[in-house]
Amino acid sequence: IYSCTGGNKNPLAGMQNYDNIFYSLFNVFQTVTLQDWSLQLYNLARGSGYGVAFFFVPLTFLVSFFAINLILAVIVDTYSHSINVVQTEEDYDSTLHEMEELITQKTSKRSAPVKQQITYETYPRKLRALREKVKTFEELFKEYNQGPVERANKTHELQRKTKLRVDTTRGDGGLDDAKSIHLELQAIAEEVQNESKQDIYDQEDMKQETWEFTDRADEQKKLRNDMIEDMMLNFNKDLAFEVWLLAKPIKDDWLSGKPLDTVPIGTGGTGGQEQQDTRRCWEKRKPMCIRWLHWVSTSEWFEKAIIFIILLNTIILAIHWPAMNEELEQGLTVLNYCFTVLFALELVIKIIGLGPQRWWFDKFNVFDAIIVLVSLIELGLQDGGAGALLAFRALRVLRVLRLLHQIPGLRVLFTSILNSFEPVVFLILIILLFVFMFGVLGVQLFAGQVYDDLRLDDDGNLSGFLLMTRPWRFDDLWYSMITFLQLFTADGWPSIMEDTVLATNQGASLVSIIAVIIGLWLFRNMFLAILINRMGNQDNIQLMIDDLLILAREKQRIFDEKTAIKEFEKDVRQIRKQRMSSQSASRHQQRIEEIEASKKITGKSLGCIRPDNTARIIIHRIQASDTFEWTINVLILINCVFLALNGPHVKEGTDLYDALAALDILFTVIFFLEMCVKMFALGIYKSPEKTDDNEDEQRRRKRIKKGSADIDYADMPCTNAYLQSWWNRLDALVVLFALISIAAPQVRFLRGLRAIRPIRIAIRIPQVRVVVKALIASLSNVLNAVCFSFFILFVLGIVGLQLFSGQFGRCVYEESMNAFDVVLNLTAVGDDITESLSGNDIYAGQHSCEVAGHEFINPGYNFDNIFISLLTVFKISMFSNWYDELAAGMASGGAAAQVPSAFAAIPYNRPFAASFFILVVLIAGFFVLNIIISVVVDSFNRIKNEDEANALLTQQQVLWVRKRRFLNRFPLREGNKPPKEGWRICAFDIVEKAMFEYFIIGCILLNTIFLMTEHDGQPDYWTQLLLVLEYVFIAIYVIEAGLKIIAYGVKGYFSDWWNVFDFVIIIASLIGLGFDSGLAVIRLLRVLRVIRLVKKAPLLRALFITLGYAIPSLFNIGLLLVVIFFIFGIFGVELFGKVVPNDGYGHPILYDSNEGLSPSINFEYFGNALFILYRTATNDNWGSILLAAAADNDNCPDSLKDFYINRQEPRDDAFEYECGSVGWSVIYFVLFSIFGTFVLVNLFIAVILDNYVDNVEFEKKLVRLSLLDDWRTKWRNAERELYGDKIKPKIPIKKFIETLKTSPILVGKLLDALNLRLNIEDTDADIDYDDTEELKRRSTETYGKLDFVGKPNPADKEVQVTNDHLNAIFKTRRLRILCSYKGSNFDEKLVVTYSDALFAMASLLVGPEFRLLPYDNDKQVHISDWWTERLEEMTMMMSN
User: What's the first-to-final CA gap in the chain, in angstroms?
Assistant: First the structure.
């Protein structure tokens, strides 16, 4: 047990402390890498309590899960751009090469037609070109198929409001009210008179309008639609033809031989005459035997036969266990040799039959060749049975992946992974190169200084414990490379760094830190970037093309070409309809209609209660109210709090137990009644519609479909029935489980099902519900990725099974009470000690070890059977203390006859066994498990692209984020308004000077520097100096705040969030001055004002903006994480709350560490369970907790329970400890790792990537939005005319129309965005649009006047914007501005807010366009509806 005194040395070679700024930065870096951060927390907690968790948890959450992922975002963006550049260059070179071949063929043959054939080089380019062509057409088709713009409300009819209407609800207020009404009427009358004058001017404008532009725009739009229709008629035929060509066998002259060279025409010889045959033997026509091999290698039965052999080989390889029968083992070995020969023959047949070029084109063939080569090398070894390559033949099982390509659900994933094969191989080679480079460096720096000097015990002998727990060394290149690979995975890097520092000096820590940065944040993110990029290419268009190619190849193999291609056109039309039919506009409109329909009462509830029943109407109104919903939500939260209070310490029969049981029943009854109320109001289920075919029934259905007012809703089925919604079904399931748990409280699993109650919160809060919906939508893809990853881990598990089955057992000192203190020098006790271990006979070793008085332990993670092998490989791939298994693997195969002697475990006995663990780290750790993360990211990107929204945000949040982006770049007010009072002007001039800002920034930097100089053991005078400087800096900040409040005013000062932040910090600093600790730390947050410097750095500003706009998504994910953690926490308390603290091997844990369960680290309390789950989410040695929770039988002896019972102090909440459960422990932690860590926690990656890409795209769009600055100036002028210097970001709608009329370039851009720009002549494609005079001449000749024509050009600014132009824009209804009614009674006006106008125009100009949400017609109106009504009024007035 630690004794925390000042004289003791700090852990980790004295570097784990916060005594000065350098050590502090180092330990923060270690925490951010998530390596042994909990151990650091426990070390600090033993001295200062577990309150330090409030520092470590936010640090890991905000930085490790959130901010650090910006590195990934930058890498993904850079990699995507690099790939595009490379593909463009490859396409260019391929096109040139193809053209050269065509020219050669044309010049060598006078009359023969030249066929443009597809080669292995041109195939990828043509496939990409076809994809881009289909993508372009589908965008046009989407525009055409979109039809009229969606109606956000059921009706957009204006509810006409007059300015002079009298509010009849006013009471009689006497003479004063009468006078006030009279004054209001006078003011309104003057306003109406002014508006009447304006209406007269508007009428004059209307009389002059010819609506020529609108008519021409409508005509052009019709021509555009006709063009798209013409393309639609021929597109399916063209697509079928191009796919048919791509599906044909690629040009290959392997069988026919290379054609003889000919003399080109016009070169002096006989044109086209064949020359002497100079072809080599493999370039000539192939004999019949090779043609027969070609037929075999391309036949379907050959492929299926090979797959069957692979499956049979998989079963043979999985049959293995310790002490297996020798005859059976020999038989399996012979079978494996036979399989190796068969696969070698297959390789030869394919290379000869297909030809080298076609064989190499299929990457699977290359992979097969590698596996066969390894197997043949194994056969060539003299001691193949014991060689390191023994089990690598099991990798041939990976060839079953060919089957996955035929499964529709896995095809997208499989194709993406296959496309990633080449870059991933090169990346692995780069990693190995870096491993070699750092390995050489490690030998030069640390050889002979770590081993064996740092592996000696107190007596000067080698310590088995240190050799097994710290296996790294730098004595030769192999060990050094293994160590640096471990550093690249960042697993256990603080301990490696500790050894290098102890061996040399603290400067050696830089080597470990650099290796961790390269491996953890560069290499690992590069794998993710490759996978995300490849999966992003597999969209619906690519899937459609893949489907068509497969179908075309089948038809080419079976049918005649002329007959099949006509049928293929029909197939193209059908597959396109299946893949590309869904349109976001129709889905948006469908959602709106569902919202409208959900408010109606339909059908007969309980089969007899009609919709017009008074009681049903009242109850329906109650259950649909927000008050009812929030009341239930609050009750659910309260119920969750009481669930968290329960645990093993709440003993049956106590008052707390009875109270919690009674409350549980009470809440269950309440939720059951809530369900009954909703069933009564909505109906239980949707009854089937009547199948009456008479005319009356058909007319009734038509009325229902059209929404007629005379519908009898009682005749309709319960369309909104309770069980019709999947959310309500889930809610009902939770209530049902609650009832079952009350009926059978003695069943632990049923009690644990109470943990799913928080799901009811998840399906009720919109911010959580949107994430849940996205997760459900992506669940199939995630499950496919999990299945694929499981298969790869299964194959690697078989390899480990073949290599290490029964070889991880070890003999340890019993008195050491741990599983790693291996016996190196065994004292002879009895005759059994002389027994020699042979092969995998671990039982003899166990017997001999126990006779010697020691303890034989088989580690919890081993390869004794396929199931535990899978778990071990999974742990290694998670980079969770995988060096423990690495040490056990290199120590395997020991025997008593060896010196130093050990039983089945001699450290460094088999150093090259590390090859297997390197393979698992590279394939499973870096690549396979990242597939799950990339699938999560890709799934959410697909949802966003298909739905024109964000998968992790509600529609309101999406609109808010997009609005804020535009408003922050085009604010209505820039800077601060100078005050009118003279005494404030002086303060204003001071704070507005740049020198004042620089002075404050300088003070912040100086304050930060002095804070950094604080250190442990500093002299008293320095402490006093820092305190005085703190007073000085706080005084400066107080003066700064005072000057700004005087200059800007209270309202102006607090309108800037930076000022609010500064003010809060100042108040906290003043309060903190009165405390020696605690709140005194708050004043140190002043250094956060350094973030102001980010404004001066564009790249850093972009990164911080990414974090800022990701906050809403972070909030939504955080809410769901809370729910998931709560559920698993409750389950953990129920399943493992009474498990005795242990290390997983039957030994007690004497103090808190990150190994196993201890008296403080356990599932006894809900808070403890949450912290263990958070540790698991950070991947910090969760494997030891799994073993401790699974301790049973020999690993949970009665002596262990007695040990803790005797240590416990008598108390009322004491309970009897129990053993764990292997099954529940594995299921619990593996499920949480997959769905908690890989899916939910890694949603942060999806959030960061999405926001970073949006910010990059937004910065590009800003170049096209510079014209909004001129319009913003006109808005300010209009606002100043109305309100003076007051800030009111809204103006009447007519004023807004005036700002558009005075902004011709903006209107021209809007017309261009709506495809309403008028072409001067269709044939004038070479017009110089910068030649203003030429444009004027042409437009005058064409239209008789200057107008918006062709592309945006300088002549636009001379165009007078008329109602004709605006009418063309408003008719499209795509300028989605909602005008609001402001004021009351006589002062009511229709106004446009600046944010709405800016957002609508910017979205239309640069996209993406947004969809209107349902709104209240009494409060808002679409600007297009207002414009339509205004035109009607003007027309009526002119006609009168």
Answer: 100
